Amino acid sequence: MDGQGTSSAGHEIATELRRRLAASPSDRLGDAVRQIMDHAFQIIATLRPTPEELDALVQFLTDVGYATDARRQEWVILADVFGLTDGVFSGGRTETAGVTPSTLPGPFYRADAPHLALGADLCRNGAGQPLSVAGQVLDPDRKPLSGALVEVWHANSEGRYENQDPDNQPEHNLRGAFTADADGCFHFRTIRPGGYALPEDGPVGQLARRLGLSLDRPAHIHFAVSAPAHRRLVTTIFDGADPAISRDALFAVKPALIGQFGAGGTDLLKVVLVLDRDGSLQPNQPKG
């Protein structure tokens, strides 16, 4: 069969598949499958893949499945590296002007982080370069949110989180929760986190390296902030001095999220976190 015949056959199959899918429900699942298959057949018509290349694709997807277990989610890494995670997360939300942009919490968040007094030290083993963090929580009108709950977690100087490194770090190392004071202010001591790279020993990492995609994540600190009548904010402040700041593997770095970790030799990071109002509540209505 010549190339024209192959193209024609592919067109006929695509047409027949569309006819069959037309009978499927007109819900989001049906719409998604129809659009995905339309694009898939366009790719087939354009690139004309060989049977061997199709086998390689199927084997890659199989390998991603084999690499996924209770401790590692290779499918999530695949979605992250190609920007699908942040694309869906960012595309599905609207941000009020002046509000701190949100990011994904990542896989290392723990809801059971201990509540600590303002000024406490998150570093429980004394390993790392000291860093002090001073912040304030505000509403969109830049008024302080007294009593806001501020949860914090980050990696150690080697870029590893406590719950992925339990044999080498104390329980709850480099994480904690604080209550902001009457002026919405909070402060604590910790150490400068290190950047890290997503795993490259699996099929996704190997594909990313082959395509020249970055697996690097610049050093960062996670924050989750809650206050009555306001939307919970989950965000990340990145170290602007980290050489990977322009090539974050998860596409999460935004100008408003770049901080100065110890700029000018002061070992102090200043943070301002602005929460959006909860649009589902009426003005002055408490959050139930």
Textual characterization of the structure:
The structure is a single chain. With 288 residues, the protein is α+β, with helices and mostly antiparallel strands. The chain folds into two domains: 1-48; 96-196 and 210-274, Aromatic compound dioxygenase (Protocatechuate 3,4-Dioxygenase, subunit A). The chain has helices spanning 3-21, 28-47, 51-67, 74-81, 84-91, 203-211; strands at 130-138, 149-154, 175-179, 185-191, 196-197, 216-217, 220-226, 233-239, 258-259, 268-274. The strands form three sheets. A five-stranded mixed beta sheet has the order 3-2-7-8-9, with no helix packed on it. A three-stranded mixed beta sheet has the order 4-1-10, with no helix packed on it. Helix 4 (74-81) runs parallel beside helix 6 (203-211). The longest helix has 20 residues, at 28-47. The protein is globular. It starts with a helix and ends in a 14-residue tail after the last strand. The model is unreliable at 1-5 and 281-288 (pLDDT under 50).
Number of strand segments: 10
What's the CATH class label of the largest domain? Mainly Beta
The percent of residues in helical segments reads 25-40%
- By secondary-structure content and strand pairing, the structural class works out as alpha+beta
Form type: globular
Q: What number is the mean pLDDT? A: 90
- Major pleated sheet: 5 strands, mixed
CATH homology superfamily name of the largest domain: Aromatic compound dioxygenase
Strand content: 15-25%
Query: How many separate structural domains?
Result: 2
| Annotated CATH architecture of the largest domain | Sandwich
Given the structure, what is the number of helices?
Answer: 6
Stated plainly, the CATH topology of the largest domain is called Protocatechuate 3,4-Dioxygenase, subunit A
Distance between the termini: 68 Å
The topology string of helices and strands comes to: HHHHHEEEEEHEEEEE
Spans where pLDDT lies below 50 across 5 or more residues: 1-5, 281-288
| Integer-rounded radius of gyration | 23 Å
Q: Give, in spatial order, the strands making up the sheet with the most strands.
A: 3-2-7-8-9
